[in-house]
Specification:
Elements (H helix, E strand, L loop, with lengths): L1 E5 L17 E6 L14 H10 L4 E3 L5 E3 L2 E6 L5 E6 L13 H12 L9 H4 L2 E8 L2 E6 L6 H4 L7 H6 L13 E7 L3 E6 L12 E6 L3 H9 L5 E4 L1 H8 L2 H6 E5 L15 H4 L1 H6 L9
Parallel strand pairs: 2-11
Antiparallel strand pairs: 1-12, 1-13, 3-4, 5-6, 6-8, 7-8, 9-10, 10-11
Length: 291
Amino acid sequence: LALAGALAAPGCARQAPRATVSTTLNRHLDGDPATLDPIVTTEELGLRVEELVFRPLIGLDKTLHPVPSIAVSWAGSSDGLVYDLRLDPKARWEDGTPVTSEDVAYTIERIRDPKVSAVNWKSGFEDVRSVETPDPSTVIIRFQKPYAKRLLALTVPVVSAAAYRRGTSLDRQPVGSGPYRVESWAAGQQLILVRRADQSADAYPFARIVFHVIPDGAVRFRAGSAGELDEFRVSRDQRVAAEKDKEFLAHNRMLKVGQFSVTLLFWNVRNPFLADRRVRLASRASGDEPR
């Protein structure tokens, strides 16, 4: 996957220096997100927006190591069955109300609700024994069995209990705790985020982030080449042409970036050879036990 961006987008391609730096970052989406409910989102389009609107319980740094987020500290019991998390007292929802242990408990309850399609998160919380909230800043989660990947499950985005209990159009107008909030969403055109008033411009220099919905790769490339996008995806064929274009290279930088992916291996257990569980165990390619 190659990305090109104008020299105004940190971490991506940047446009040549200008007299003034724009406070608007123009990004792209290949289509409209199916939802902005982070508990049920399963596709990249929604995730790219939600990561700016919601904070996770525990964060991950660029090396995929756990870092503080809504939980500023945590401790696990020696048997891996109990996790004690202490929340950031400064964490706030966009309406100014504090993020509390009740919100974390509600998030886990919603994940475990059979009526909620929380496919990305459900397996990490299916064996929850109890969630205790002794005070607004403390959450104690008890599990029935240890799980080596438990901290990854705890990177879940936390949602507002009050907002979901009111429950109106949260898939399009979410209430988040992240640095940005949704200002507007014109389907098939633009999704605009604005920096919250209580967030520092030093930490989040862009006052607005505009996601332009451009499904067509050729249209997206032309828009990016014309300087209308600060970040855009480049196909293999476009990359070959761009690398020969001095004008393009003078204003953009192309980066190869990785993508997270999951590969599923299905076993045809009607085959007598694969029906033997010992064969499947011997052939497994990951730490998860095949069925």
